[in-house]
Amino acid sequence: MKRISFFLLAVAILAGIVAYMPHASGQSDGDSSPIYGVKIPAGYRDWKLIAVNNLLIPGKVDQLRGQFGNDIAIKAYKEGTLPFPDGATIVAIHWNRVPSEFNNKVLDPAFPGAQSLVVASRMNIQIMVKDSKKYAATGGWGFADFTGEKPGDKALHETCFPCHIPAKDHDYVFAHYSP
Amino acid sequence: MKRISFFLLAVAILAGIVAYMPHASGQSDGDSSPIYGVKIPAGYRDWKLIAVNNLLIPGKVDQLRGQFGNDIAIKAYKEGTLPFPDGATIVAIHWNRVPSEFNNKVLDPAFPGAQSLVVASRMNIQIMVKDSKKYAATGGWGFADFTGEKPGDKALHETCFPCHIPAKDHDYVFAHYSP
Fold first, then answer.
1. Rounded to an integer, what distance in angstroms lies between the CA atom of residue B166 and that of residue B128?
2. Do residues B66 and B92 lie in contact, with contact meaning Cβ atoms separated by under 8 Å?
3. Fewer CB in 10 Å around end: N or C, chain B?
4. CB–CB of A52/B119 below 8 Å?
5. Chain A residues 35-64 with a CB less than 8 Å from chain B
6. Is the backbone of residue B15 left (phi > 0), alpha (psi -120 to 50) or beta?
7. In A85-174, which residue ranges form alpha helices assigned H by DSSP?
8. Which tens digit of pLDDT belongs to each residue from B87-103?
9. Do B53 and A117 touch (CB under 8 A)?
10. B61-94 pLDDT tens trace
11. How many helices and strands in chain B, by DSSP H and E?
12. CA B145 to chain centre
């Protein structure tokens, strides 16, 4: 019995160390986010669309955004399952919103003053991965923010969870399904 | 030989009648568009996303839009194939763009004046189906505009192709792939 207890204790300690490791390092290993160790999931641009939205922060941000879900996330959205099950992954692409000179020119005769705004380059992507045990301290979510292939720094990633706390009633996820 | 010629003539006439039928009636049969006879394709909300954009027509329209492609359309976009091959289908969902009171409230302390704009109800959907023979007179595209399950009238559908003519260099399709 003692031996089993010691074994379980050792496993628990090891699990604790492993779970803590990404926090302890606080550094990206190049292709994963600091704190959380989240990588860019393969093929996410082809995932199903959750929602589209537009964020304007005066003088700072003018973005068209699309959130994409893997099959676990999409199923949860469609069935209204909260909290999201482990394995649910959401990737938000943030594109800069710019006027389309071409569209505006051809639309204007029919609709004076028409403004067609389209996406230009990507600004960044943000990722949420659900693992209720691994990320228990942050609502069960691991976060990542990448610009191109490069994850943001630790200071940036320390802002992810606090920013998402107001969305607690929707399991910390701001995006609702666009019908 | 005469018999074969007559047979071919009969086939050609019949084909002509069948091809012309949707034009001749000019009426929707309830679940397909007038002029073109295009129906809502099953499952399109789960298709891959082509692009997101935002259309503002002062006093008339404020929409977030998403274009979805079937596999033929997505392949053509990714490979830069123009014109789009027969069978390519694009569905654009037009949602009304509205401020998110919830998001704005929680964002404002960190980003004063922040405006999060999200989708409300759908306004309509628009569909383009490529069939270079059937729709030869309209750039190879059949068009449809549905509000809910109901197709718009003939007068509305008469505006589809003329509106798309300026996008001729992109095979009459305005939407470019959002990277």
1. 16
2. yes
3. N
4. yes
5. 45-46, 48-49, 51-58, 60-61, 64
6. alpha
7. 101-107, 154-157, 160-164
8. 999 999 999 999 999 99
9. yes
10. 999 999 999 999 999 999 999 999 999 999 999 9
11. 5, 6
12. 7
